[in-house]
Amino acid sequence: MSNVIQTETREVHEPTELLTCLVGDQWIGLKVQNVREVVTKQLRTEMPLAPACVMGLINLRGKVITEIEVRTVVGLPPRGEDMPLHVAIVETGNGEDFGLIVDDVGAVVELDLDNFEKTPRSLSQAWLQVSEGVMKQEDRVIVVVNVDRFISMTIPNASADRSDGA
Amino acid sequence: MDEELLSEFLTESNENLAEIEQQLMDLEDNPQDTELLGAIFRTIHTVKGSCGFIGLTKLEKVAHAGENLLSRIRATNFAVTEDIVSLLLEDADAIKTILQHLEAEGTEPDVDHSQLISRLHAAERLVEAMASGEAAPAAEPAPAAAPAPEAAPAEAPAAAKAGTPDAATLLAGWAAEYDQELRDSLAAASLATPQQVVDAGFATLKELNGFTPADALKLLGTAKAAVAAGNGDGTASAPAAPEAASAPQAKAPPAEQEAAPAAEVKQGEVEAPKAAASPPPVPVKKPAAKAGPPAAQPHRKPSSAGSVRVDVELLDELMNQVGELVLTRNRLMQMVTASGSMELMRMGRDVDQITEQLQEKLLRTRMQSIQTIWSSVPRITRDIGKQLEKKIKVVMHGEDTELDRTILSALKDPLTHIIRNSCDHGIEQPAVRRERGKPEEGTLTLSAKQESGFILINIQDDGAGIDPQKIKDKAIKMGVLTEEQAAAMPDKAALQLIFNAGLSTAEKVSNISGRGVGMDVVKTSIEKVGGTTEIMSEVGKGTTLRIRIPLTLAIISAMIVGVRGHRLAVPQMSVQELLNAPEHSDDWRLIAGRPFYRLRGKLLPILRLCDSLNLPERRKRDGDSDKVNPMEDQRQVNAGSIVVVDMGDQPFGVLVDEIIGAEEIVVKPLGVHFEHMNFYGGCSILGDGRVVPIMDCNGLASMLQKTEEHDVAAAYAMEDDNARFGQESLQHTLIYRQGEQRYAIPMALIERLENFEASRIERSSKGEVLQYRGSVIPVLRWGDLVGIPSEDGEDIYCLILSDGHKRMALQVEDVVDILEIPLDIKMMSDSPLFLGTAVIQDIATEVVDVFEVVKQVDPNWFARNKREEEEVKTKVLYAEDAPFFRNLVVPVLETLNLEIWQAADGAEAVRILEERTPDLILTDIEMPHMDGYELATWVKEHAHLSEIPIVALTATPPDEDDEARRSLFTEILLKFDRQSIEEFLREHLGDTVMSDDFGGL
Fold first, then answer.
1. Residue A45: which pLDDT band, with cuts at 50, 70 and 90?
2. If you count DSSP H runs as helices and E runs as strands, how many of each does chain A have, helices first?
3. What is the DSSP letter of B250?
4. Residue A45 to residue B691, Cβ atoms within 8 A
5. Do the Cβ atoms of B683 and A57 come within 8 Å?
6. How many other C-beta atoms lie within 10 A of the C-beta of residue B564?
C-alpha cells in the first residue's frame, strides 16, 4: 500500500481509486490515498481574518483541522445556510490534514485509464489549476483533483509559486 | 553492540567535556590549582582512553596530544599561561567537533588536526624546557596512585558476605580504583578477572547493579588494558597501572567517579527518577551485593544511581499525551459538573488532581537548569575580550534556575548574541574605563530567577550604556520615526527601537556585532517562545537587557475573552491587568479618531479587537436583548473590558466585549493558512470541545502600531494634557428619540436608564407613578410634553432623574446612544424645555433643560419657601461664559434661595463688583476677556472685597502643586459636581441658605 501512495501522489498512470464528491454540479475525484475519512457537519470555530475559503477550525477527536469550502475555491456561489454538506478529511504531502467541504459524497470508483484525459481547456481557471485530468463516465465527467495543489491554491500568497509544484 | 557502545561513549564524553571549558578558564585564573588540573587531565585522558577502545584514531590523536601536554604541565607544576589555555581550549574544541560529527554522521570527520597536534607537542616541549630549570621533573603521579578511599576498608567484609572471597580479592587487585559496590556487583555476577569482564562485554556490564554506562565503559577499558598487559586472570597487582597510563586503554582515575555523575546532572539529557531500572543479572545473590557497608553509600551521588536516561523525544511525546489528557480532563469536568452527581464529582476531583500533578511532574522532568546555556558564556566573553583587548568578568546569579528544554534551546542563540553585543558595544576599553573612573575590568552580570510562572533573565553590563538620542537620530535617518515623533518619544521607548532591524548604534562595525541585524533577531526568537524583551540603559553606567519568558510552552494559562460572539484566548503571561471600561467612563479619549483609555494618568492606546479582526456586530443572545441598542452598528462602541497587555515596551489595551474566564489550555499549532497571521499564536480546544484561537500579543501590538504609529506618539505628547480633553469640552450625554426628533440630556442628571414593561406604570390620583426601589415616583411622559406620542411597545424606556432623595421617571420612546461629546449649542431655543439645539452626529438635536422638565412634574421640586423670601437673600456673583453651564448652575443656586448676579466673563464681573458687593463669588476659570485667575487677583487687590470667598467652578482645576493659583480661591469645585457645590454653599452661607424642602418630598 505504501508503495502505491508514493507513486500515486506524483502521477495518475497506475491503477488507483477515487472518492467522488459533488461540488455544485461538478463531480470531483479525490484519490483515496489522500482521504482519511468523511464526516458530517462539525462544530466549527470561525477564524477572523482568515482567507475567504477557510471556513474555520474543527475539533476532530482532539485534532484541530482547517475546513476549506471547495465551492469558494473553485468560484461557485457561497453555500447557503441550510445546504447540506459533507467534509472530506484529506491529508497533504506535508502531513497536514484539511477538511474539504463538499455538497455530497458519491462512491469510490476505480480510475479508468482508458477514459482518462487531459483537463479540457474549457474548464474554468480554478478547475484547471487543481485538476490532474478528467475521467469520463457515461453520464458525467469527474475532475481528478490534486489535493496538494488544491490546498496550496487556498493559501494566500503561496498559490502562485506552488501551483505547479506537485 | 558497536553502535550502542558508540552512542554511550558520545553521551559520556559530551557530559564530561561540558565542564572542561569552564575548568580551563578557571585554571587560567588559578594556575596553581592542581586539583583542577587533575580533573581536566582526567577528562581528556578518559576520552582518549575510550576512543582508543572503540577505534577512533583521529579523536585519539587529538586527545592524546592534549593529554600529553596536560600531563607534562602536571608533572612540572608548570603555571599555565593564557596561550597554553587557549591552545588547550582549541584542543577541547577539536575534540567536541569530532564528537559532534560522530553523533551526526557516525564517522570521524575528514579534518586534518596535524597542525594543532604539532602545536600541542611544541607547547609540551616548551613547558618541559621552561620547567626543567626550576623544578626537578617529578615523576608523573599515576592516577591510580590515589586509591579510592572507601575501597580498602569496605572491601573485606563485603567480600566475605558475598561468599566469593576469591572474586573480591581478585577485583580488589586489578580493579581497585572502582567502588566497593561496583566490585560487589562484579563479584555477584561472577566477573572476577579482566578476561571475564572483557568477555562479558559492555552490554552486560552496564546492566549490572550500580553500574552507569560510564562505569562499564571504563571498567571494560581497564580490563582490556589488563588483558593486554598479560594480566587477564587479574592476579597481577595494582601497580600495573602506571605503565598502562600510556596505553590507550589507560585506567580511569578514581576521581572521575565523582566527576561523571556531577556532569550528568548539569548537561544533556533530562533525568527521570529511576524505577529499579537495572536488576542484577543474578538475583539470588542480590542480598549479598547489597550488603556492602553503609559507609560506602554516601560516596555515591544518588542522582546517578537513582536516575535513568530518557530520550527527549519520548518526553515530548509524553508531554503531548498529557496535553491531551488535560484537554480531556477539562471536558470531563464540565460534564461532571453538569451531571450534578456527588459521586461523579468526587471522582472528577480526583481525576482533576491527578492530572494536575502528572502535568506538573512531567513539566519538571523537562526542565533543565539555565546553566546548560550559560556555561558557554565565560568562553565567549574570554574570546571576545582577548580579541578586543578588553577585560571582562562574568558574574552569574541563579544558575540553577530551571526552564523547559525547548525554551532553553531557543534561548541559546539570542543569549549569545546579547553577550556579544554587551562585550562589543557595551563594555569599554580598559583605558576608557579608567578615565571614567570605573574598574578596568568590565563586569557582565547574568541573573535568572523564577517569578510566578515566569523566568526573568537579566543580562547586565557596566559599560557605556546606550544614548537614546543616538537611537532616535538613527531612527529618523532611517525613516522609522519622524522628528516630531522622536521628540515626543520617551527615552525608554526610544531604547526599545534597538530591536528594530537595521538599527545598531555601533560606530564601528566589527565582526563580532554591529551589523544591525541581531537585536531584531534576538527579539523575534525570544518572542517565538512566548517571551518578551526589554532594554534599560543609563549612559555611562551600563545596559540591562531583561528577558521574561514562560516556564513552559506546552500548557499555558489563558484568559478566554469574548468579542462579538467569538471566543479568543489571550495568554495570561502577556496580560498585565483587566479593566472594566464602561461605555460612559470618563477615561475614554479619542485622539485623531483613535481610542485611548486613561489609566493611572497615562493614556493607554486601545486596540478594538472587533475592528482589528473585522468582526461585524452580532445580535446579542436572546437573554439580554432588552439592552440592544439600535444605533450600535453605526457607532464606535467603546464599552466592554480592556485587557492590558504589556509586551515590555509600550503597554496597550485590547478592548473586548467580555472576559469569559481563565483556563489552562494546551497550545496546538495552527495550519498553514494562518502562518502569515502573526496575531495568532496557535489554537486550543476548550472544555466544551470547541476550538479557540490563541492570540499572540506581539502580533496584536503590531496591528496597533500599523494603524496608530503617529497617534501613539501624539498621545505621548499629550499625555498629561488634561485641558485638551477636560470635561469642559467633552461630556457624557444621553441621546434619546421621540418620533423622528432627537434630544440630548446631560448624563450627570440621570441616575439610571431603565427598560421595563409598560404595565409597570400605574395610575394614581396625582397622575402616573412608578414603583421604583421601594418608593413611588412620578412619571413624566416626554411624548406628552412635546406632543409626539410614543409608539406602543411592550417595553418602555425611562430615564430616572434624581436629585438628592427626589426621583422622577422620564419616559421616552427610545434611547439612541450615550456619547462623550462637546455640547456645543448652536441655536437658542424658544421653548423653555430646551437650552437650544446642538448638532450631534450630524443630526440636529434639542438639548433638554432638565430643570424646566422637572418643574413640569413637580413645581415644588425647586420651590422656595415663602418664609425665606421675606428674609434678606445671600448675594452671589456668578461669572460664567457658557450659557449651558449658567443654565445648569443657576437653578441649583435658586433652590438654595440665593440672589444671583450673573456675569458673562471676568470683565463683566469686575464691572458688577465695582458697583455692588456680593457675599460670595462663584467663577469659572476659563473665560474670555478676563479669566478666573485674573478676576480673583483683581478681587484680592481691593481691600473691601478681599474677604469675600471666591469659589472656582471649573472643569480644569489648577495643578495640585500650583499653590499660587490655588490660593486665590477659597475652594475649587468641579462644575458638574452639584453635590459639592450645594454642600459648600450650605456650609459657607450657613443659615441664610434655606434647605429644608430640598431633601425630600
1. very high
2. 5, 12
3. P
4. yes
5. yes
6. 15
